Each structure stands twice: as structure tokens, then as C-alpha cells.
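User: C-alpha cells for this complex, please. No commentary.
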Amino acid sequence: MLNIKKLHKSYPIGDSSLHVLKGIDLSVENGEMVAIMGSSGSGKSTLLNIIGMLDEADEGEYILDGVPIKNLTEKKAAIYRNKFLGFIFQSFNLINYKNALDNVALPLYYQGIKRQERQEKALFHLEKVGLKAWAHHLPNELSGGQKQRVAIARALAANPKLLLADEPTGALDTKTSYEIMDFIQHLNDEGKTILIVTHEEDIAHMCKRIVRLKDGVIMEDEKVEQVRASQYV
Amino acid sequence: MIKFLFERDTWQEVWDSLTKNKLRSMLTMVGVWWGILLLIGLLGSAKGLENSFNRLFGSFATNSVFVWGQSTSKPFKGFQEGKQVRLTLSDAKLVEENVEGIEFVVPRNQNQSLVVRDFLSGTYSINGDFPLLDKVQKKKMMYGRFINQNDIDEKKKVAVISEDIYKQLFEKDEEMIGQYIKINGMNFTVIGMFENGNVNMGPTSDIHIPFTTFQQIYNQGNQIGWMMLTGKPEYDITQIEADAKLILRNLNNIHPEDTRAFGSFNLGKEFKKVTGFLVGMQFLTWFVGIATLIAGVFAIGNILLITVKERTKEIGVRRALGATPFEIKRQIVVEAVFITLLAGFFGIITGGWILIGIDSAFGQGDEAVLVNASVSIAVVFIALIILIVLGTLIGLIPAFKATSIKPIDALREE
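Assistant:
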């Protein structure tokens, strides 16, 4: 599914540069649910951004679903993001003047799908996250948990191969966090490959595998016994 | 690309971003609205002025020059300097036959005379004229007729008077046709009355009598006071003036370089100054209008730049969701063009209202300063095309700004 070899990335800071990723090797199989952990500055977000094609590596190899991701133009990156990836952000990043349904339909719009079909698909995904009744509400009329569920529906709408979640529970209270994790676990049960960046141990243990980063290298990569979030809900 | 313009979503997006901040959108449009309003209002007024000029000069052959004799300033062929030059009918005839591009030559005579009717009298200019005068200096007859060939042939004692003379010599509402007035002690029958024009080019015209009658009563022989030359429209009146003077010098034994022997007034040249002024005014109008438009469009670009800055994160999200840079740019350019056109549309409508207002305030009646102040459809189209071009160009600035930030940085923006 995902194959990364000897990935390097550094950012220029003034005259010098900051070496953030120092040779990452990572491969993720279909259907895995991986938590990427590490303290701030460990490079976990940078890694996720490179996987998400929002950023490009300086060195190394990145193959996603058999497609080598290299020397992307902005246009190509946009098409790949749309086709392969679903993003879930810490701050939800919903467009606040569009209602829940239109937000979910947005990736489909960029796929060039007709309005009617788009609305139907978006409604289907909203129903899946249990927010069909809220379809015509604006984001500011929704609670944090509901917003994140809309964001998840949006990430799912384009039927991506890989879900990337950057601290999906970072802005939520514990109870809502577990609800969201329960939901993400169900998606994984249905076969979606999911990558979650988090710094919370309990959230990480709800995944099937934990990759720990420190100072730009992988310190530890272990399979763990998945804790089901449903028992806390 | 064309299909994109007809999709509901495109316009939904434009509508969303316009209505998100209604006050700002409206203020944004003020600049372009004002620019178009100025353009339409000024161009319409300039057109109105041009129309009123045309109406004033309409009855007058503007491509014409008056030539009269003065006194020589150089001795020539045995003649002393200071010789009085008087033009004659044969001069007029030869000029007409020999100068290229001449349409009409109208010889004229004028004298000041006492005119008496019953107990009313006054001294007025009496003109001896041919019927041809009516061709180059159209008389608006209110009653009766102008001098005709029969009057000339029979040297009739008939007079055509102006409205002003009528007012001075006749009682109000009195019948004037067939009445007698005494000119130079002789009775003349009034055969017509003409309206005093708005603009009098050349000498004042009070009373016209047949040329031949004039010759007889004032003992003029073949001498004429001056001649009026009109050129065919495609000929340059300045050249005609020069040619005519050259012939006249030859005929009258005048030194070729004697510039003072003939006086002249070139109406064509004067008229060109006026029309040149109108052209200048139209140019100025376009300049001011378009400069204001550009300023207005820049205001739109400026606001869009701010909007794009505010929407940096949203644009980042859209790009993470798969919007290509082209799709983002396209949307912003369409927004820019749409706002510009919308503002321009309102500007054209209000500009039209202003022209209607101007027309009802200044455009009524015969003495109107501005006649039919209006702009043509072509001008409106040109204005719209300018708006589309400017809107597109200015929209490109925020569009490129929007996609110049990497999506990753855009997403980090708080």
C-alpha cells in the first residue's frame, strides 16, 4: 500500500537548515491502522504531510499504491490527493459558509462529479456518520464531535485508499475523542487503511500498530493489541 | 472552460463569497460603478454638445471662406501701394470656373441704410443677394419666401426681412407679407420673413434684397462687397482659399506676395477648431472615464487580495481535497470579472438615468445646450469589453497570490 525508503527532509531556518526527517523507512499494508507518535518536533507531522503530498521529501523513495510519488507538479499532486487520500485535521477545517452536505460534497466537486450525484453520495456518507439530519446545518451550528464526523464523512466521500488523520482528537474532550476513535476503528474494520498522528497514548493504543518517532528517526515500530474504543463509549 | 461558466456550482461559489461580506462587496463595486457612470455621463454629454453644435451649424455650409478686397501693401506693375481693391462679379465668375473643388461662389453686397415704415425707422444692413445664398446659408423662412431668380432678372423691389427687423418695424401680430418698407427712400414689398439663427456667421443679416436691385439703387456697377466660397466636402477649404486668392491677385494686378490686399475669414478653419475641441473633449472623457475605471478595478483587485488572504486556510483545505491550482485561480478570476461586470452594469444603468435627467433638464427646446445627450450601443459594448479585460487582468493578481502559498503552509495558517 505504502512504501517509504530512506526519506529525508530538512527545512531552511535562516542560514542553516533543520534536518527534520533523517532517513525514515516505513511500509504500511492494506487494512492497517497505524499510529505515528512522537513529541513535538519529532517530525511526525512532516512525515504525514509528505505522505499526504502536501509537502515533498528532499531525498528518498515514496511509493503509494504502486505509484512512485516524485517530482509532482501542483496539478498532479492535487489529482493524486483527490484520488488516493482523505484528510482529517485536528481543527476540522470545514468551510464555514457551506453547510455540512456541501462540505462533504467538496472533494466530489473537484472530481468533476455532477451536482445531483454529488449530493446523493455526500448524503450517503453523512448518514454513515449519523448526521443525515444535520445535512443543511452550517458548521458553527454543530458541536466539535459533529464537526469532526462531518470532516470524516468528507474524507470518505471521494472513497480514498488511505485516510490520513492529523491529531483527529486533539481538539475534542475525552468522551468525544473515544466516539470518534470508535468510528475510525469501524472504518478500519471495513478495510480502510488509516494513518493517525497523535501524541496521546490511549489514542495510539486504539490502533493496531504504533510507530514512534524521535528526532527524525523511527525509534520503535511495534504491533499492539488494539483497544476497542467502544468499551469507553 | 466555457462549460465551467455555465455550471451552477461556479456561480454558487461566486454568490457565496460575495454575500459572505455584503457591505464590503458593495463598497468594492463603488469604484467601477463610478467609473462607468462618469464614462457614460460624460460621453453622453459630449455627444449632446456635439449634437447641439451640429444643429446650430446645420443650416450653414461650414466648409466655406469669405473673401473681400482691401488695399494693397506693395506696389506692382506700375500701381502704387495702397490701391483700393474691389472685387467684381467677373472675379467671382472666374474664381468659380478656375479653382478646383469649389462648390458655390456667392457674390454679396452690403450697405447700411435708413429703413422707414410709417412712423418707425432704423438703420440696418441691407444685403444684395442671389437666391444661391439660401443654399449655403439656409434661411429658416417663417413667412413667405426668399429671393428668387425672377426677382433678380426683373430687378424687383422686394425685401426679405429678419424676425428682428419685423419686431422693430411692425406691430405685434401684424401681417407683413405684401407690406411696404422704405429703403433708401424707395418702397420695397416685403416678401418673406426668416428666423434669426442661433449663430450668425459673417456679417449681420437684417434685410435681403435682390442683387441686381442692390446694384441699381446703390450704383454698384459690377462691384461686389465680398464673396463667399464653399468647397466640396472632400476638398480642403484652406487650399481653396489660397487658390482663389492667387487667381484674384492675377486678375487685379496685385503683387503675388501681397498678403494684405484681400481680407478673408475662413469659416472652415474656425469650424475645425470647434470640432477639434469636441474631439478633444471626447478624448478627455474617454481618458478620465477609463482612468477612473482602472482605479476602480484596482480597488476590486485590492479587496480580492484581502479576501484571498482571509481565505488562505480555506484555499489550503480545498487544495488538500484535490482542487488544482488552475481551479482555484479560475474561480477567483471569475469572481473578479463578475464583480467588475456587475458594478459596470449598475454604472451603465445609473449613467443612463443621469443622461435622461440631463436631457430633461438641459435638452428641451430649440435653445438646448445639449441635444439628445446619449451614448451609442457600441460605446456600451466597448465599455463592457474593457471591463471584462480589466477584470480578468486584475483578477489574475489575487489568483496567483492564492496559489503561490503551498497548501501545507496555507493549512497551518490560523
